[in-house]
């Protein structure tokens, strides 16, 4: 308020000075009875210069006050960010500028990151709590000496299954963390991609044989330069999901085709399918299209996130095409390097 009062007084003083200049110039010209046009122009010019100078001084004082206000606003906004208030914004007062736009964008991005961090912690805690509860509960039941041998074996199998689930969860988290942080550089080798896909399908034979699934393969002979171990995890995750969500007697297919400078690997199934709403989020971490069903089958919602990350590290992408009740087809596109 004090600065505003000082600025107002300066403004009024400048107006008074301008008025005085005009008045003095007018009366001086009449008093001197100036008949010479040149002298008249000189006096008018002097008066004009004085007015312009006064106007510039007023603008400078006003701008200085405005800059002072902007400086205070920026300092306040930065302090709020330090406190964790990511909803703070710089007011533009109708005049957009690069500093305020960039600051507001930064605050929004920081807020989004904080939301993701909180969601991540919540999801991890939830995923860990469920198997721990099962392990603790069935371990307590096993302490009953009168428990029949069949039930004891069944409870032990559940504990083992939940332990594997925890191990898989922690393993995938560590892999994603290492890949996100660039701690695990790609180990590039040249290998037969068609043989890798074939071997992966054979590795999962116990799972798809138990459900009497028909597994089809259409694989072009192809050599590829990439991280063999990481890409193996991609095919394992995609084929495992295809088998898991396909009912008994269904079909799972694997296709490898070359398309110009790209390789297209498609893993399709005749399972329950994915809705359009879920397909948009299917590659997000911890996202599950059907949480109750997926939990019963032991999923953590990290497999497809890992698939997407590995594909992107190889300069590729992954997409899904599906309709509820009509199965799903996941297509990985990789750039072919000579």
Provide a short characterization of the protein structure.
The protein has 338 residues and is of the alpha+beta class. The protein has helices at 2-31, 37-82, 98-142, 149-180, 193-203, 205-210, 228-244, 276-279, 291-296, 303-313, and strands spanning 188-192, 214-219, 223-227, 251-259, 262-269, 317-322, 328-335.
Q: Could you walk me through the main structural features you see in this protein, from its secondary elements to its overall organization?
A:
- The chain has 3 domains: 2-85; 102-180, Signal transduction histidine kinase, dimerisation/phosphotransfer (DHp) domain (Helix Hairpins, Orthogonal Bundle); 188-335, 2-Layer Sandwich (Heat Shock Protein 90).
- The protein is globular.
- Strand 4 and strand 5 (262-269) form a beta hairpin.
- The chain starts with a helix and ends with a strand.
- It has 10 helices and 7 strands.
- The strands form 2 sheets. Strands 2-4-5-7-6 form a 5-stranded mixed beta sheet, covered by helices on one side.
- The protein has helices at residues 2-31, 37-82, 98-142, 149-180, 193-203, 205-210, 228-244, 276-279, 291-296, 303-313, and strands spanning 188-192, 214-219, 223-227, 251-259, 262-269, 317-322, 328-335.
- It is of the alpha+beta class and 338 residues long.
- The model is unreliable at 31-36 and 291-298 (pLDDT under 50).
The strand order across the widest sheet is 2-4-5-7-6
* Strand elements, count: 7
**Ends distance:** 71 Å
Strand content: 5-15%
User: What's the Cα radius of gyration?
Assistant: 36 Å
Which stretches of 5+ consecutive residues score pLDDT under 50?
Answer: 31-36, 291-298
Number of helices: 10
- Helix content percent band: 55-70%
What is the H-and-E element order?
A: HHHHEHHEEHEEHHHEE
Main beta sheet, described? 5 strands, mixed
Q: Please name the CATH topology of the largest domain.
A: Heat Shock Protein 90
Shape: globular
Q: What's the overall average pLDDT, rounded?
A: 75
Domain module tally = 3
């Amino acid at each position: 308020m004090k600065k505003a009062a000082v600025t107002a007084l300066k403004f009024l003083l400048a107006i008074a000075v301008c008025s005085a200049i005009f008045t003095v110039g007018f009366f001086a010209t009449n008093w001197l009875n100036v008949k010479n046009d040149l002298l008249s122009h000189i006096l008018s010019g002097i008066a004009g210069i004085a007015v312009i100078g006064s106007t510039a001084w007023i603008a400078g004082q006003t701008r200085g006050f405005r800059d002072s206000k902007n400086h205070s606003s920026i300092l306040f906004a930065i302090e709020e960010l330090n406190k964790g208030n990511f909803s703070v914004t710089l007011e533009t007062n109708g005049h957009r500028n690069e500093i305020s736009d960039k600051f507001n964008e930064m605050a929004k991005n920081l807020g989004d990151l904080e939301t993701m961090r909180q969601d991540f912690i919540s999801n991890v805690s939830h995923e860990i709590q469920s198997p721990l509860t099962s392990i603790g509960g069935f371990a307590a039941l096993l302490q009953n000496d009168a428990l029949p041998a069949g039930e004891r074996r069944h409870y032990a199998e559940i504990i083992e299954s939940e332990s594997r689930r925890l191990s898989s969860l922690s393993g995938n988290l560590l892999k994603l963390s290492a890949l996100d942080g660039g701690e695990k550089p790609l180990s590039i080798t040249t290998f037969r991609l068609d043989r890798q896909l074939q071997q992966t399908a054979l590795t999962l034979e116990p799972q798809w044989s138990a459900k009497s699934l028909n597994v089809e393969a259409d694989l072009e002979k192809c050599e590829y330069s990439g991280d063999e171990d990481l890409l193996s995890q991609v095919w394992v995750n995609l084929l495992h999901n295809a088998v898991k969500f396909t009912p008994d007697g269904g079909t799972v297919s694997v296709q490898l085709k070359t398309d110009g400078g790209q390789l297209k690997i498609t893993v399709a199934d005749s399972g329950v399918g994915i809705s359009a709403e879920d397909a948009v989020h299917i590659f997000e971490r911890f996202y599950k299209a059907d949480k109750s069903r997926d939990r019963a089958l032991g999923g953590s919602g990290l497999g497809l996130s890992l698939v997407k990350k590995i594909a992107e590290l190889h300069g590729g992408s992954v997409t899904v095409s599906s309709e509820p009740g009509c199965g799903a087809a996941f297509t990985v596109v990789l750039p072919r390097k000579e």
